[in-house]
Amino acid sequence: MEERIKVYLIVMSSETLKLLPIGAEGIVEKIIQLGATKFIQISQHVLERMPDTVDVADIFDTEEREKLRENLQIDLPTELSVFLTISELWKNIAYSQPKLQPLLESLKEIGFDDEMRTAIVKVWSESGVTVSDQLRNISFSGRPNVRDVGWTLRMSVASSHNPVMRAAETILQFDTDRGSKIVELSRGKLVELYMMLQEVQKSLDVLLESNIKGQRGQL
Predict the structure, then answer these.
(1) Are 122 and 40 in contact (CB under 8 A)?
(2) What percentage of the chain reaches a pLDDT higher than 90?
(3) From start to end of 127-216, where are the E strands?
(4) Can you give the pTM of this predicted structure?
(5) Domain ranges in the chain?
(6) Which residues contact 103 (CB under 8 A, 6 or more apart)?
(7) What's the pLDDT score for residue 107?
(8) What are the Cα distances from residue 53, in Å, to 46, 72, 149?
(9) Distance (Å, rounded) from C-alpha 188 to C-alpha 170?
(10) What proportion of the chain, given as a percentage, has pLDDT over 70?
(11) Tens of pLDDT along 167-199?
């Protein structure tokens, strides 16, 4: 199932990307004026801390920020907008996992020039795998993120002290980012879980097949 999910995500990544909201053109111009070197410096800090928000004070000291605002001819609110827009750009790239060509087309549509598009591709090619692993290991639902699952079967047999034969129970042990979690399932609950997973798999298969047919139709 994991491999099918990966293929599905790859298919979805080839669709049209919306990396920034409409109306961000003015801020994009300021980002271009930053130059590739400073943009890469900011981007690396953003990606290292993703999904957390980066404070501009963590990247540049007061003197550097004043010089930056002077060079770009911007005030404090615009400075904040520049950094938030860069963060938004990387967040959308990280979550959409785009292929190279759709990424370049979207960046060009937004208004980034050749130098900045090259810088963005360079940063993502160097940091993309690490960032993807970071996000994969985070639970955004507030529930523990499962890393591995183990299981055992338990059944008590009848004895002179306990003549009633107990039904079999399955013990699932979830290795999560918050420690080990033990769940005991009766046969009925285990069958219910299995059927639920089967339905999820069927839905993924239908979505994957539909997207593959759509891609073939565009060729």
Answers:
(1) yes
(2) 18
(3) 146-154, 169-176, 179-186
(4) 0.57
(5) 14-136, 146-218
(6) 17, 93, 120, 121, 124
(7) 92
(8) 7, 23, 32
(9) 10
(10) 77
(11) 667 888 878 767 788 888 887 888 888 888 888
Can you list the alpha helix ranges (DSSP code H) found in 137-160? Answer: none
Q: Supply angle C-alpha 8, 106, 36, rounded to 5.
A: 120
Contacts 24+ apart (CB under 8 A), 31-39: 31/82, 31/85, 31/86, 31/112, 31/116, 32/111, 32/112, 32/113, 32/115, 32/116, 33/71, 33/72, 34/68, 34/72, 34/82, 36/115, 36/116, 36/118, 36/119, 38/68, 39/86, 39/116, 39/119
SS3 163: coil
Integer distance in angstroms from the first to the last C-alpha of the chain? Answer: 27
Distance CA 190, CA 66 (A): 62
Type of residue at 179:
G
What values do phi and psi take at 188, rounded to 5? -65, -45
Mean pLDDT for the stretch of residues 74-93:
89
Phi-psi region of 121 (alpha: psi -120 to 50; beta: other; left: phi over 0): alpha
CB-based contacts of 208, cutoff 8 Å, min separation 6: 4, 7, 8, 11
Q: What is the mean pLDDT of the chain?
A: 78
Coil, strand, or helix at residue 142? coil
Top pLDDT among 138 and 21 is at: 21
Cα–Cα distance, 143 to 91 (Å, whole number)? 21
Of 145, 213, 219, the closest CA to residue 179 belongs to 145
